[in-house]
């Protein structure tokens, strides 16, 4: 029997984990060896990530894997959320903490850039959904504000690449994470240089882009000594968490849509090449890069962030568990209040329940009176937004979609899974919940030559994890609610 061990570091906006993956006869099992919280740090009115404490936590994960679990992994790899980056000076030193994507410095950056470059042209050249926090707008805001930091920047590295750099000393930019920046040629390992030059962004700070599934170096001697590890390979997997997650969708064929459900609900399909047209521009769809040359044609929907932020706000009075919040919603009247989850007021309002209440009032629906009504409103609105997004995808792609795979932590939410099946009329296949770590680990296995293709990866996922199927129920008021939602 051949057994291989890999350690995945999966960093999200609210937590990070070190997950040990053991591949034995084409079956994968996972063990969480370390978990920690992650949070934006507010300093003088700006939001940052503390990359150095995150790196400490990752090293603790490796240390624990070796000393507590007695396993020396064969390799490690990091994936994180998209778009954020660190600055290196010409000595390779990290300059300052990286800004967090919800920071307010990009509040007007899109309009400011569109005064120089027409919006349509930016979309045509990048094929990426406009979100004010995309790296393009983050960098442009620094150009606009004459940032001294940008002046002394020799190189930028996206979050997973920066952590790989701390582990290995090798500064490499990986394709999937670079594709979230809105700065590359759609589907290619190439920066959209003319566009960046017009925006005044110095292209010398961007390194060559490599494909996922390659070894980028080995642990430095210093890190190996500190963690008790040997100098194992550091692998560039799909560094973007969503790309890693979608690699592990347990699909047997192409006829599916997916929702990668976490802080964001990422809704889309996998396509052989980008889909870029006037219509996809009007719908503001994105084409992010995946593994093995795949494109993720998708939409970011404000997902569990809405719930997470309500919970955080209410924690002063009531410390709800996620399950308690689901039960409150289940027992509350359906479709009484609806919001557009993607309204920009929900990006970082500080007080989410107040923002939701204001939206309901401003749209003539009155005021949700209880926590239960607010939570119900979020879940109903998410399910309706999923249907809206599915309809949009169907309007630009002939791909038959006969099921929705929900993966990631949100796949545990049976209430929302059933609601999604009912509202979309499609069966929902829920699981695996650890999709991102799974995709990360199986890409490590591929890089080291134990698996060959994306199809192999998905076969291992099917063999290794149980899924739950939610069939659409009939008789609810879904269609009526959908009409109301579309008229919001
Ligand atoms: C999900 C995710 C999304 C990206 C958002 C911000 O964790 O990576 O794909 O759009 O975070 O980076």
UniProtKB/TrEMBL annotation:
This is Rhamnulokinase. Residues 7-245 form the Carbohydrate kinase FGGY N-terminal domain. Belongs to the FGGY kinase family. The keyword Kinase applies. One of its GO terms (molecular function) is rhamnulokinase activity. Keywords: ATP-binding, Disulfide bond, Kinase, Nucleotide-binding, Rhamnose metabolism, Transferase. GO terms for cellular component: cytosol. It comes from Gaoshiqia sediminis. Residues 257-447 form the Carbohydrate kinase FGGY C-terminal domain. The lineage of its organism: Bacteria, Pseudomonadati, Bacteroidota, Bacteroidia, Marinilabiliales.
